[in-house]
């Protein structure tokens, strides 16, 4: 978002034991310092950064770990947390080429079951020497409807200079989310703010001081591969994040701040802080670090070609369509061209999305969008960053792609679509209604916005009338870049009932309070 400043103004005892062991193995740098974690050179390999599971389906999933030195990754899975009977999975040899991170793919898992896992790191020269195992757990998607589905979503982490504050006990909102015991967490982008340094302290308008845990890499903008790796590591310094990761699998997408505010392919940055100004070079380095620090099934090593957009099938009730509105877009502009085949998705991704939505037999099709549709997000005085550009008339520019997609959904009678996003740093609910729109060849649908999870809060933006959005709920601060001490972190919850198929969306804030809820009925083209 262009108005964001670049500078800061369950009873699962085994999981908790493993996560706490990881916390004990990783010492936080002193507040105000810039020391990065050091690699131990003696003893067995350690996994102090915790574990993560990602892109879990009914029969598969990915497990992630980071070692403190070269090691062989080994994963053991079990139906019980006692690990009385285990299946062993031999993972990669991790080393400096991946910043000592590794991912192991699990296949042939039973559907609808709680999977307990532990990761061991073995000395490459002596496989009998392994470090302390780090444990985690996740549920595979159910093959049937019984039991339903529940997941959370949010985005925007460590932005605008608001980092891990030890005075607040770190990012406590992750404990609120973990307590809800969701099947997975959808992170809607801006996992890091590569262009927003984290400084030792920030003084608030009322005189209070926000203190940050700092590291060398996060004390400056990210340009080198090492800088980007350090930015992704930063969030893992928080023990709440590591505990959450050990219990809740993720589906992760990216957006602009993984690289630079409002970047697009081919852009040359106008930012004096950078010596490398080619956004394509920076984005390639960031995507490599992104693929190293998140278990994503369509990125290396699982997919050598690599892409962020993908569909994750969560049984008969839900398919999640993860979009990439960053990599294939055209340049930010006034966005009023009458003909636009590139748009915000690119032609190939749009064709993929239409094809996969048509093939989906799930009751609900969640479109995980890293940017909103009808909220006007500007980029400077005349250009625009998202889909909407403030002209309430017929579709122009990037709106043409969205109009084509919405028309496809209507005419193919694709039921149960809804859009989830973050990006704008407040929480809201919009209902898109053809009767209120300039473009009317679509069926009604909902868009729900949540976030930030750990960044600055911003005022609500204007609505663009092209697709007829009606804002049913909004909660946003009255000024720009409010700290998490002033504006609470926001996250959303989606719960699908296995019996009725009803889908309920709840917009929540830190502490778990429900701000807004809406229940949608299954089997309809529009809501």
Automatic annotation (TrEMBL):
Residues 50-140 form the Phospholipase D N-terminal domain. It comes from the Bacteria. InterPro entries: Metallo-depent_PP-like, PhoD-like_MPP, PhoD-like_sf, PhoD_N, Phospholipid_Metab_Enz, TAT_signal. It holds the Pfam family PhoD_N. Residues 157-506 form the PhoD-like phosphatase metallophosphatase domain. Signal peptide: none annotated. PANTHER family: PHOD-LIKE PHOSPHATASE METALLOPHOSPHATASE DOMAIN-CONTAINING PROTEIN, PHOSPHATASE, PUTATIVE (AFU_ORTHOLOGUE AFUA_6G08710)-RELATED. This is Alkaline phosphatase D family protein. It comes from Streptomyces tabacisoli. The lineage of its organism: Bacteria, Bacillati, Actinomycetota, Actinomycetes, Kitasatosporales.
């Amino acid at each position: 978002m262009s108005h964001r400043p670049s500078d800061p103004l369950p009873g699962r005892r085994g999981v908790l034991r493993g996560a706490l062991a990881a916390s004990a193995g990783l010492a936080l740098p002193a507040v105000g310092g810039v020391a990065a974690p050091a690699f131990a050179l003696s003893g067995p390999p350690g996994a102090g950064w915790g574990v993560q599971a990602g892109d879990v389906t009914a029969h598969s999933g990915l497990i992630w770990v980071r070692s403190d030195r070269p090691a062989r990754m080994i994963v053991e899975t079990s139906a019980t947390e006692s690990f009385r009977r285990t299946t062993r999975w031999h993972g990669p040899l991790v080393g400096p080429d991946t910043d000592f991170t590794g991912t192991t793919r699990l296949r042939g898992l039973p559907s609808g079951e709680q999977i307990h896992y532990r990761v061991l790191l073995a000395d490459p020269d002596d496989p009998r020497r392994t470090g302390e195992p780090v444990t985690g757990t996740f549920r595979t998607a159910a093959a049937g409807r019984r039991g339903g589905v529940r997941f959370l979503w949010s985005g925007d982490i460590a932005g605008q200079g608001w980092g891990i504050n030890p005075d607040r006990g770190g990012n406590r909102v992750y404990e609120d989310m973990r307590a809800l015991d969701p099947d997975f967490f959808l992170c809607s982008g801006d996992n890091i703010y590569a262009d927003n340094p984290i400084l030792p302290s920030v003084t608030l308008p009322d005189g209070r001081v926000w203190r940050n845990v700092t590291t060398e890499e996060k004390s400056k903008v990210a340009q080198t591969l090492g800088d980007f790796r350090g930015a992704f590591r930063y969030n893992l310094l928080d023990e709440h994040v590591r505990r959450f990761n050990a219990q809740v699998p993720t589906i992760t997408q990216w957006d602009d701040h993984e690289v630079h505010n409002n970047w697009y392919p081919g852009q040359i940055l106008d930012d004096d802080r950078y010596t490398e100004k080619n956004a394509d070079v920076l984005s390639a380095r960031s995507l490599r670090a992104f693929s190293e620090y998140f278990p994503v099934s369509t990125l290396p090593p699982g997919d050598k070609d690599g892409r962020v957009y993908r569909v994750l099938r969560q049984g008969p009730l839900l398919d999640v369509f993860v979009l990439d509105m960053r990599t294939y877009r055209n340049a930010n502009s006034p966005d009023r061209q009458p003909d636009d085949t590139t748009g915000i998705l690119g032609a190939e991704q749009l064709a993929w999305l239409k094809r996969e939505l048509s093939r989906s037999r799930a009751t609900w099709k969640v479109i995980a969008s890293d940017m909103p549709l009808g909220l006007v997000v500007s980029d400077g005085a005349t250009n625009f960053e998202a889909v909407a550009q403030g002209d309430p008339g017929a579709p122009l520019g990037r709106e043409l792609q969205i109009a084509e997609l919405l028309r496809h959904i209507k005419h193919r009678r694709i039921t149960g679509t809804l859009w989830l996003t973050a990006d704008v740093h407040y929480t809201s609910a919009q209902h898109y209604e053809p009767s209120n729109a300039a473009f009317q060849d679509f069926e009604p649908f909902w868009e729900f916005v949540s976030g930030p999870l750990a960044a600055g809060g911003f005022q609500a933006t204007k609505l663009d009338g092209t697709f007829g959005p009606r804002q049913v709920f909004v909660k946003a601060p009255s000024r720009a870049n409010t700290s998490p001490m002033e504006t609470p972190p926001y996250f959303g919850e989606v719960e699908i009932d296995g019996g009725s198929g009803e889908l309920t969306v709840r917009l929540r804030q830190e502490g778990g309070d429900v701000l807004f809820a809406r229940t949608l009925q299954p089997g309809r083209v529009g809501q």
